[in-house]
Amino acid sequence: MALHVYDHVTRSRRKFEPIHPGKVGMYVCGMTVQDKPHVGHMFAFVACDMVRRYLMHLGYDVTYIQNFTDIDDKIIVKAREEGVSAEEVARRNMDLYHEYAAALNILPADQYPLVTGHIPEIIAFIETLVAKGNAYAAAGDVYFRVRSYDEYGFLSGRHVDDMRSGTRIEVGEKKDDPLDFALWKSSPDDEPGWESPWGRGRPGWHIECSAMSTNILGNHFDFHGGGRDLLFPHHENECAQSSCGTGEKYVNFWLHNGLLFLGDKKMSKSDGNFFAMGDVLEKFSAEIIRFFLLNAHFRSQIDYGDERLREAEAAYGRLRRGMARLAALRTDQVDPVPEGLISEAGETLGKAVRELERRFFAAMDDDFNSGGALGSLFTVVKEVNQYATAAGAKIRDRAVLEETWTFLATAVDILGLHPKGIEGLVAADTPAVPDEVIAMAAARDIARAEKNWAEADRLRDEIKECGFLVEDGSDGFRVRPLGGTD
Question: Which of 131, 166, 171, 474 lies closest to 317, judged by CA?
Answer without folding.
Answer: 474
